Amino acid sequence: MIEVKQLSHQFELGKKDKKTVIPVLQDVSFSVTKGEIVTLVGRSGSGKSTLLHLIGGFLPRQSGAITINGTDVSNFTEAQFAEFRLGTIGFIFQNFQLIQSMTAYQNVELPLILQGVSETARKIQALETLEKVGLKGFEHHYPSELSGGQQQRVSVARALVLNPLIILADEPTGSLDSETEEDLLHLIKELNDSLDITFLIITHDDEVAKIGHRSLMMHDGALIDQEVK
Amino acid sequence: MLFKDQLYFVRENMKKNKMRIFMTVLATAMGTAFLIVLASVAFGLHDTLIKDVLEQETVNQVQIYGKDDPNSQGITDEDIDYFQSLEHVRAVRKQSYLRQSPRVSLNGYETSPHTVAVDMGALETGGTPLEDGRYATSSDEVVVGYHFYEQLLKEDTDPEDMYDENGERIDDTLYQGAVIGETIDLTVSRLINETDTEEKTYQVTIVGVTAEPANEWQQDQTLYTTFDFYQSVSEYTGTPGGELYFQEEPMDLTFYYDEVTIQSNNLENIQTLTKTINDEGYYGYSVASELKQINMLFTIAKAGLIFIGAIAVIIASIGIFNTMTMAVTERAPDIGIMKAIGASPKTIKQIFLLESSIIGIMGATIGTLVSYLISFLVNIGLPMILEAVFEEQLPDGFQFSSIPWTLVIIAYTICLLVTLISGSRPAKKATKIDVLSALRREL
Ligand SMILES: Nc1ncnc2c1ncn2[C@@H]1O[C@H](COP(=O)(O)OP(=O)(O)OP(=O)(O)O)[C@@H](O)[C@H]1O
Ligand SMILES: [Mg+2]
């Protein structure tokens, strides 16, 4: 489902004459098969988020190759990647990234709008997805009127609403207390079971790592261990 | 993304900052109104002038001044036959001026009128109607102008006694009797040698009076007679048209027309007709060709005023640029989220361009409505002010300002174009927003 080959990445800082190069990823190769939950662990600054951003197309690829669902996305333009991402990849962020001026319903409806789905079909799909994540009755709440756990559920619903093949999550439980975290992990497991969605989850948390079928360990921009449970 | 949804997005976004949008729309409306009102003056005056020209009875005429032929002395019957054979010709009016003013005496009143020999038949078809009576049918019948009676003076009155101290004609001195059916003595003179003259009196009957001229300032005191009469005067004096000129040798008395006017059956054909005639070697002139120049002049004036007005719209567009740039900056986090989900740069650009065009359309619409109001008020108010200040009556139907739909379309196009251009940079900026920086709230 996800295939990464010899991916390297470096950031350049400073002006032309005093440029410093920070190597972040070195020759990262791994693959994730359909229906897997893979967790990505490692010290802070080891390059986990950078790897996820490259897979998601938020950063321009420098070297190496990425194939997602059989499509080589290595040379996609920004516009091509946007279109590809819309129907294939869902994102969950640590700090939810909801649009504050929109209700829970409107946030979940957004991917459907971008996809060009008609208003009636949108309504059915968005409400159904909100119900799936247990937010029935909260449709018209704004993010500021929801708890952290509820907000993260909205963002899960948003990632889910277009039936993606893959969901990429960057520390999804990072802002949640342990009880809410458990609920969310439960939800992820359920979605993986019922919909066969592939998950790639960055985490610092052992509880999260437990739900994964497999865990990847990053250290200083390289994968050092592929632990299979 | 459906257009309907883009529109919904834009509406929601605009609602978030009503005051700023309102001010921007206001500036655009003012720019558009300035453009339209300014240009409407050229349109209004042009319309007034064109209407004025078109109302002249001479507008569908071609006047013939002569012929580009060294052997030709003037227009003859042969030329007239040619004119009559042309397409689109309704009538050919022709006349010759008597080269002296004969003395007229009617029931003790006298005058020496300007005398013109005309084709009575063409007068009838050519649009010189009669007030009363009929057209002359023989050389001892004449038609007089509407104001002919005003110049008749009682024999032996001092012209000084005709006017009161204000310079107004004293009514009592006017000829009061009948005109039509009266027989007048028409006396012409000739030189029999270098100094001595001799006279001959014709007795002719007034059979008709022409209608009052269309314009108040026009006076028609002419005596209209026939070409036969004209020729008989020529033969009597031995000079063309009865000119008071002595020569031993007998002169060539071939008859030429002094003035020939070709009337077209409709205005559209007048230019083709003029061209045909001029190509044939005649000197023809029509007011219609003057219209062409008037049109050209006003086209330049309109373009100039539209250009100046467009500058106002461009100044207003700075506001749009500002508003859109601020909108993009404010919404950068939301744009980042939308891009992260999968909004294409094209979609983002379309939404912002749509927003600036809506501001443009709203501005142009309000500006147009206001312009119509201003134009209406100017057309009512300005003549009143001018009449009050200068105590002068403006002609009927005079309009300063006119807004045809073409001007509205031009203003809309300029306004939309300018708003699209000024909105395109902010829109482009929106598409360039980096997802990760936006999500980190760095922008
Ligand atoms: N835009 C950037 N410009 C320069 N350096 C960057 C940029 N983004 C990340 N880095 C650097 O790349 C390295 C890896 O960062 P990354 O965010 O991938 O780490 P991480 O493993 O996700 O850490 P954490 O667990 O704290 O989120 C860090 O040293 C960081 O300073
Ligand atoms: Mg990180």
UniProtKB/TrEMBL annotation, chain A:
What Pfam families does the entry give? Answer: ABC_tran
Q: Does the UniProt entry include the keyword Transport?
A: yes
- Give the UniProt keywords, A-Z: ATP-binding, Nucleotide-binding, Transport
Per its UniProt record, what InterPro entries does this chain match?
Answer: AAA+_ATPase, ABC_transporter-like_ATP-bd, ABC_transporter-like_CS, ABC_transpr_LolD-like, MacB-like_ATP-bd, P-loop_NTPase
A single Gene Ontology MF term assigned here is:
transmembrane transporter activity
This entry carries the following GO cellular component terms, namely:
membrane protein complex; plasma membrane
Ranges for domain ABC transporter: 2-228
**Similarity comment:** Belongs to the ABC transporter superfamily.
- This protein is called ABC transporter ATP-binding protein YtrE
The organism of origin for this protein: Halolactibacillus alkaliphilus
Source species taxonomy: Bacteria, Bacillati, Bacillota, Bacilli, Bacillales
User: What's the gene?
Assistant: ytrE
From TrEMBL, chain B:
* The ABC3 transporter permease C-terminal domain, residue ranges: 306-433
Q: Provide the topology term for how it sits in the membrane.
A: Multi-pass membrane protein
Q: Name one GO cellular component term.
A: plasma membrane
Q: What keywords does the record list, in alphabetical order?
A: Cell membrane, Membrane, Transmembrane, Transmembrane helix
The residue ranges crossing the membrane are 21-45, 296-321, 358-382, 402-422
Please tell me whether the keyword Kinase is annotated for this protein: no
- Please list the residue ranges annotated as the MacB-like periplasmic core domain: 22-234
A molecular function annotated in GO for this UniProt entry is:
transmembrane transporter activity
Pfam entry (one): FtsX
InterPro entries documented for this protein: ABC3_permease_C (IPR003838), MacB_PCD (IPR025857), Macrolide_Exporter_MacB (IPR050250)
Intracellular or extracellular location(s)? Cell membrane
**What protein family does this chain belong to?**
Belongs to the ABC-4 integral membrane protein family.
Entry protein name: ABC transporter permease YtrF
The top of its lineage is: Bacteria, Bacillati, Bacillota, Bacilli, Bacillales
